[in-house]
Amino acid sequence: MTPEMMSKIAIWRQKAAEGTLTVEEMQGAIIALRGDRRGAAVASEKSRKAKAPKAEIRADDLLSELGRL
Questions:
Q1: Strand locations in 8-60 (E)
Q2: How far apart are CA 46 and CA 44, in angstroms?
Q3: Crossing angle for the helix pair 23-39 and 59-67, nearest 10 degrees?
């Protein structure tokens, strides 16, 4: 993760804690984090098999829910 992304995350966290994070900023954060995850290296097959399955959270669903606020 780049220093710029880490800085943005810190700002989003602070705004969220203060209750001043806007819907547009939330959408931007989801899009940015989603893009960063896509660029991350894929875990090895062995590592993925060793982990317990988790509930799938789709970024598109989160963005559509934010649009309804």
A1: none
A2: 5
A3: 170
In one-letter notation, the amino acid at residue 43 is A
Dihedral sign, Cα of residue 35, residue 5, residue 56, residue 14:
negative
Domain count, the chain: 1
- Distance of alpha carbon 63 from alpha carbon 32, whole angstroms: 12
Q: Specify the residue for token string 């062995």.
A: 46
Model pLDDT for residues 56-67, shown as the tens digit of each residue: 778 788 788 777
Q: Which two tokens stand for residue 29?
A: 């954060």
Report pTM.
0.53
Q: Which two tokens stand for residue 65?
A: 């829910």
Domain that holds residue 17: 3-67
List the Cα angle 35/41/47 in 5-degree steps: 125
